[in-house]
Amino acid sequence: MTDREAIIDVSDYELERGKPMPDLIHGIIQANLSFELKMRYRADYLIASEVSLATQPDGTTPDVVIYPAFKLNYGNEPARRTDAPLTCIEIQSPSQPNRDAGPEEMVAKTHIYFQFGVKSCWVVLPSLRAVMVFDRPGHYTFFYEDDTLRDPNTGFELPLAAIFA
What we know:
Layout: H1 3-9, H2 12-17, H3 24-41, E1 45-49, E2 64-68, E3 87-91, H4 104-116, E4 120-125, E5 130-136, E6 139-144, E7 148-150, E8 157-159, H5 160-163
Parallel strand pairs: 3-4
Antiparallel strand pairs: 1-2, 2-3, 4-5, 5-6, 7-8
């Protein structure tokens, strides 16, 4: 395969967002995360999906972000946010290279998010039904499906069984 053929095989989604196209499992987990977070924390936090962040060098689009609550300015919100959310959540897609070898690419993104100013990063591993909660670069706690996720930097708590249901 030539370089030109490889470029043609990349979807518009992947080019635009810089990450693989999600599948049904990814979408269900993303919806479950957003739902469970909103059910528990909607009074104090904004939970959103697919928000473009002005991270360096090229920007990123986490699957889910959590911001302290603020009044939205409909019609005048920036296309790419320059303020860091409290938490960025990435969900590993089955189409990501070396899915079974480990989440190295996703872990590398956590460094970008911490440089941007987030307080924590979660990396969701659907094939393991687990979540890595990073409280600083290179340091994480591993939570499995039967655990209650506890984020030490934000105080968020979620039963993972509901996320992987």
